[in-house]
Design goal:
Layout lengths: L1 H30 L3 H23 L1 E6 L7 E5 L4 H10 L3 E6 L8 H8 L2 E3 L5 H13 L6 E4 L17 H9 L3 E6 L15 E7 L9 H22 L6
Parallel strand pairs: 1-7, 2-5, 2-6, 3-4, 3-5
Antiparallel strand pairs: 6-7
Helix pairs in contact: 1-2, 2-3, 2-4, 5-6, 6-7
Length: 242
């Protein structure tokens, strides 16, 4: 059974990346000249990934909680590529704080810039935070939901990584509500490797944190909300730390 599951996962992964290339080319005449076109193409791809994950891997997916609609910051737990797919596919006009290296990825980089994603060089620490804030302010002319990963990278279930203060600085700079988002997707879709496990992957949008809190208080509440709910979702999925 595990061999069949691994082979189906391999088929899923291969077709997922092929579909990215095919859809990127197919939508290019519209998407590369229109933010609306780029968003439509990206949302279509997200639906395809979720559909094929269910058909080929038995991996169902569910988004819980009110979907953020207005000008908000979404601070999300990041465990694998699948939580990006689920969050992006759910939000009406999302844009991400992303690693600068991704802008050079074929298709992905060009679409991300058209959608309004903000590339940041994480290696420069303080300078990266200053540039991030500057780009966010400049990008507020494009309405939508700004998605940021407070831990800065994928974090597997059962492991911990500190929350970076950059999220708090963005929250204070923009003066917008922040919607935390928790997930358990790493139980089924690992940080690395081919095997995708069957089950129910969940992303849950939590009650928004109103603007105006001091950054330390905001960061403490954000971490407690995200980690507490993510741990609950992980436990519901049957995961027990080794």
């Amino acid at each position: 059974m595990i061999v069949i599951r691994w082979l189906l996962s391999l088929v899923f992964v291969v077709q997922m990346y092929l579909a990215m290339a095919v859809m990127a080319v197919a939508f290019a005449p519209w998407a590369l000249f229109s933010r609306e076109g780029a968003l439509f193409a990206a949302h279509s791809y997200c639906r395809w990934v979720r559909f094929t994950a269910r058909i080929l891997c038995g991996l169902h997916s569910e988004v819980r909680g009110p979907i953020p609609q207005g000008e908000v910051v979404v601070a999300a737990k990041h465990q694998s590529f699948f939580d990006i797919i689920m969050i992006f596919g759910s939000l009406p006009r999302p844009r991400f704080i992303m690693k600068r290296e991704l802008i050079y990825a074929p298709f992905l980089g060009q679409y991300a810039l058209k959608i309004g994603c903000i590339p940041v060089d994480r290696g420069k620490r303080g300078a990266a935070i200053a540039k991030m804030k500057e780009d966010v302010i400049r990008g507020t002319a494009d309405p939508g939901q700004l998605v940021i990963y407070p831990q800065g990278t994928r974090v597997a279930p059962g492991t911990s990584k500190p929350y970076k203060v950059g999220t708090g600085l963005i929250y204070a700079q923009l003066g917008q509500p922040c919607v935390p988002a928790a997930t358990n997707v790493g139980v089924f879709w690992p940080k690395r490797g081919i095997l995708r496990k069957p089950g129910l992957a969940v992303v849950e949008f939590l009650p928004p944190i109103a603007p105006g809190l001091p950054v330390p208080e905001f960061m403490a509440r954000l971490e407690a909300d995200i980690e507490g709910t993510s741990n609950r979702l992980i436990a519901e999925a049957g995961f027990r730390p080794g």
